[in-house]
Amino acid sequence: MQPNNRRLSSRTMAFVLAGGRGSRLKQLTDNRAKPAVYFGGKTRIIDFALSNALNSGIRKMAIATQYKAHSLIRHCQRGWSFFRAERNEYLDILPASQRVAEDKWYVGTADAVTQNIDIIDSYGIEYILILAGDHIYKMDYELMLQEHVETNADVTVGCLTVPRDEAKAFGVMHVNETGRITSFLEKPADPPSIPGDPEHSLASMGIYVFKWSYLRDLLLSDQDRESSSHDFGGDIVPRIVETGHAQSHRFTESCVRHSADAPAYWKDVGTLDAYWQANIDLTDFEPELDLWDENWPIWTYSESTPPAKFVHDEGNRRGHAISSMVAGGCIISGTEIRNSLLFSQVHTNSYASLDQSVLMPRVNVARHAKLNRCVVDRGVQIPEGLVVGEDRATDEQFFEVSPGGVTLITKPMVDAWLKAQ
């Protein structure tokens, strides 16, 4: 038996649910799952959950994948292959592989864990931390584990305070004065408010802590229930609320801040508008999300690239970037860039301009192109003279324009535009 004086994180595994498409991101997830979408100039969305686990002291992890998982799997193999089994460290990738039946993939978040019980058993863990792989935040899971043990809970649910009109997209809970959950509703049409605060609701982050032996028995029982959707938020947690002890854990108690007065930063970048805004926010003078904090780094796969290069300085042909983030390998040739975020290996050419735009790796912007409030998918070749972001009606003929006026540009869209010229 492992000694109890060790950190709880050393007796815990993190199980990351990363199988969802994220259809609200439109064509950004046509070829990759949402957790594999690029974010912040260098990382992928899943890197935040994995980095939080690693920084919290957890060295045993598993990632359940399903929808178009190749990009995600390749990223994890390249960027997260430093775990060493001889040091009792593991990161397993668990694609849906018809382990139960030939016609059965993962049918719910809980089922993704149930189908891998034998693998989890082999880890020899005491606690399991269930994580969503598609949110942007920094959190010390050790503090959540401590509350779980101190309150003797059957499940501890990470929770956020959100505006009531936004809570319908979450699991929403009522709690008593000790933080015990007294009711849990999954994505209610009319979310209940926090007592004493009618404008806000307490929403689930999709983060759960269980003692593994307890969850194991619960999952096996749930597996045989025909009425169950085999989902943590829809079935497992509500069942514990009714029959056991479900405890809430406030994100504000364990979020990692870069300063004492910094806000508790958490973002669901599940829509095109939210994704664009979260990336552009990083170009602020002092962004709420601190990617420069060496005490809580966001680990990822780092390409070997030369430094960014800026060339030409004559009249309206000047390579420069203002209030922007530019990754390695970029060549900014005679282009004006403002309030934008460029991933690695982006090349821009003379007389082009970018404003409030997010360009993923290996985008090429030809001469005289103008992009305003755009998100450009990986590898897109922006044609010479293309202007996007000035006339919504024109943009909507070929590109995806969000309710907030952000334009998504992908290779098939550019091909359609070229064909029409």
The gist of it:
With about 425 residues, the protein is α/β, with parallel strands linked by helices.
Could you characterize what this model shows?
This protein has ten helices and 31 strands. With 421 residues, it is α/β, with parallel strands linked by helices. It has two domains: 8-283, Spore Coat Polysaccharide Biosynthesis Protein SpsA, Chain A (Alpha-Beta Complex); 309-420, UDP N-Acetylglucosamine Acyltransferase, domain 1, CATH 2.160.10. The strands form seven sheets. Strands 1, 4, 5, 6, 8, 9, 10, 11 and 12 form a nine-stranded mixed sheet that branches. It is globular, with a radius of gyration of 23 Å.
Secondary structure: elements and pairs:
Elements: E1 12-17, E2 38-39, E3 43-44, H1 46-55, E4 60-65, H2 70-79, E5 90-95, H3 109-114, H4 117-121, E6 127-132, E7 136-137, H5 141-150, E8 155-163, E9 171-175, E10 181-186, E11 200-211, H6 212-223, H7 232-243, E12 246-250, E13 266-267, H8 272-281, E14 309-311, E15 313-314, E16 317-318, E17 320-322, E18 325-326, E19 331-333, E20 336-338, E21 341-342, E22 347-348, E23 353-355, E24 358-359, E25 364-365, E26 370-372, E27 374-376, E28 381-382, E29 387-388, H9 392-395, E30 400-401, E31 407-409, H10 411-420
Parallel strand pairs: 1-4, 1-6, 4-5, 8-12, 14-19, 17-20, 18-21, 19-22, 20-23, 21-24, 22-25, 23-26, 24-27, 25-28, 26-29, 27-31
Antiparallel strand pairs: 2-3, 6-11, 7-13, 8-11, 9-10, 9-11, 15-16, 30-31
